[in-house]
Task: structure prediction
Amino acid sequence: MKQLTKVTLLFAAMGLAACTNPDRFGAGAGAGVGAGAGAGAGGAYGAGGASDPSSPAYFQQTIGDRVLFAVDQSTLSPEARAVLDGQAKWLLANPDYSAVVEGHADEQGTREYNLALGARRANSVREYLTALGIPGYRLETVTYGKERPIAICSEESCYNRNRRAVTVIAAGGLTS
Amino acid sequence: MIRLLSMLAVLILGVPAMAPAQSGPLRIEITEGVIEPMPFALPGFVAEGSGAESLAADITRLVGEDLIGTGLFRQIGPEAFISQITNFAAPVQFADWRAINAQALITGAVSTNGSGGVSVKFRLYDVFAGQELGQGLQFEGTAEGWRRMAHKVADAVYSRITGEGGYFDSRVVFVSETGPKDNRAKRLAIMDYDGANQKFLTDASSIVLAPRFSPAGDRVLYTSYESGRPRIYLLDVGSVQRRVLEEQPGTMSFAPRFAPDGQTVIFSISEGSNTDIYSLNLSTGARRQLTSSPSIETAPSYSPNGSRIVFESDRSGTQQLYVMSASGGEPTRISFGEGRYGTPVWSPRGDLIAFTKQNKGRFHIGVMRTDGSEERLLTASFLDEGPTWAPNGRVIMFTRETRGEAGQASLYSVDVSGRNLRRVPTPGGASDPAWSPLLR
Result:
């Protein structure tokens, strides 16, 4: 289970990535890894530390806020589904939170196609979570295409981490 | 604010009228793929009256740069000149220019009127035929618009020698990029075709993508994350005012492009896992769905007469190019080579479709006929994408991104023949260029 190892390692490395690879990821990566690229900064998760199981930080670091995809694919691997099962449980237990699912692609593709592909990936996650009982109104999707990579080498080891859907927890209702 | 010059072109009279050379020796057929650039002499334009000297020198230099930049011409250095041009009206000593093998001779004069007005006139000579090619032209403008006047002169010279429309007096709207790859800031910017006069059209607060000019060049469509999700916007270039065009809840919109009528916009909407192509009438607000396949349909582009649309779809399993009627309906697949095809753009001449191709880990910009035949790849690199056509359909500009952690995007141009690959100068990183029509 090569994939599983990678996913597990990724979660373990989260929050450490910025310190362990400072040159490689630069200042922006902390926020990117912490809260999903693009959207809110890590500071949005103020209340409740990672040890509090009802905190967004716990969701992000312990349950795992992201799933990875194969090249050009939006189907969920068994490992991805296991992560999403955990996400669904957390969302059911914490009904005051909503989430934005961000879909991303690696840089190997044209801009427009990658936007559409990111939308597909985010939607795969949303559909899976709604099938597990999370009401649709609590789950928005947004695609970033290839605009927000978190790993920037032009190798599969980075591409693999960029082909992702990240579930970003937001307090209260969604705005738009 | 961007003010267009009122640029009046006036024929200069008072020279012996020559029949225009129809098929004389001074001719470049671009389609034949020029191997040997045509040598031309461009003596410094004569400053008529005091105060015009530096302007005359600047304009002369830029006319030369425009012509050399095409790869079709070679400028003969002034140290080789036997004759000097000190009087625009004096007869030309053709023998002196033949002796240095100048096939074309461009003479000009610049004068200022003391209140900011500038007048530029020029003549183009076919040296070996010993006659003028076309008639002298005079342009009126302002000192701050001197670059446009030089581009106008160069366009006229290019056009007379190649028989094609020019493209130097044009602009490019693009995405200016700063910051590292994992935290990149993107702003819309506009500049002259040669990278001069760059101005920002948006701030760096949200991601912006793929701007596209209206047919008149006065408005720009683009995609922005201003609302937190990709939506298409329309921006007026003069006032820099913008408005969102599509905000259906739960959807995302991107890849907008104008129809040739300037009234209709085509674009993609992602809803759920599906992306389809829609059109929107800007005056009535009427929206129409043009594709309805469960696959990804995006990157639409109209034919110049507005009757057809080329787009990319992965309905076959991989990204390929399709052509359909402008009203929708069953599309015809036109790409059949190895690899994946995306971002098709119909040439303003109507004869070719430019595209991005991915094959065996490399990216290419290519062209094919509108039925998919005669595919030719013009470039190859780690990442080339997003072609846009010069107004005359002879040159293509695109984004080239370098690989790795320090990867940077920049703009390049290449002839439709595949020759003359050049980097377009921009102050920082740049992507997603869109070429304007020829300015008026």
Remarks:
- The mean pLDDT of chain B is 93.
- Chain B touches chain A through 46 residues (CB under 8 Å).
